[in-house]
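The material for today's practical consists of a large collection of protein records. A record pairs a protein's sequence with a compact description of its fold. Instead of coordinates, the fold is spelled out as a row of discrete tokens. We will come back to this pairing of sequence and fold again and again. Here is such a record, shown just as it appears in the course material.
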Amino acid sequence: MNRVRPYLIAIALLLALAGAIGGYQYLRFAELAKMDFSPPPVTVDAATASTGEWASHLSSVGTLKAVRGVNLTAETSGQITSISLESGQRVEAGQVLLVLNDEVEQAARKRQLATLELARLIFQRDQRLIGQKSISQSQFDTTRADLARAEAELTETEARIRNKRIQAPFGGMVGIRHVDLGDYVEPGDLIASLQDGTELDVDFTLPARFVPELHPGQPVEIQVDAFPGKSFVAALQALDSAVDAGTRNILLRARLQQHEGLLPGMFATLRLDLGKKETVVLVPESALTYSLQGDTVYVLEDAPGGGLTATARIVKPGETREGRIAIRSGLAAGERVVVSGQNKLFRGVKVLLATTKAP
């Protein structure tokens, strides 16, 4: 019995120690359970979605082109013997710009002039003789045919001579000259660009579904990178007679009513006014974020247990004007959206508002 007692005492002490440790751990975990380990709220800026009336228009891009503009090329080959155009020169309609070597054609013309003169004299003689019935009708017919042949050969040579002279088809500004005196040119070789900048057009395309809303005379606003912040006025002039089967777009042409400083070939962005207004939901442009799921806004909602939380919502955005973007679907007017701090948001996070911006 005396040997057993020490073991009992040791066991009792161990049980007491284990109970003390267990009690301590219980109290510790109980205190930890009372603590709030949720992340702190995120401070964001918000704005309230509003409604507004926007003029309905379509956007596109195009390239400016002169109503009268061509690339000057030669119709025949030859060496340039005379040139009277300079880069950047203003020329008038019909002005001779350069001449190709036409010595062979000029010699042929002299020979054919002599042949024509002889054929004309023989014809006049035979015309008198046929009246006197001194020659046969067949001889007179041959003489008349020789005269017509001589006239045709001279006309052909003179046409070749004219082809050796490059003339301005209309008045305008010459671009950079690509040939010099003595150069040999082939048919189709570029000599220079000639542009009449007094009238400019712009060609662009729009989806064919808008055709019922398009008609000549509609105002078109044009902007180019060379004049940031400035708009030029144009009017829709014509619609193509067929829709492109590959793109399902229709080609349109607008004529600029003001074009000071603009040059053919400039890239342009266009807005065509459809002449009607539509009511849209508007939010600041910074409220829209982009993700793999689609265009997203974070909408403020009441959080369980109080406070606010931000919920990501997929929306369909429209166009942007003056820092505001139209939301076509997915958002209602009066809802509050986050406009800054979206990169700190995640599912279930609580938010605090730093400011609430006016719509």
User: Anything to note?
Assistant: The mean pLDDT is 86. DSSP finds three helices and 20 strands in the chain.
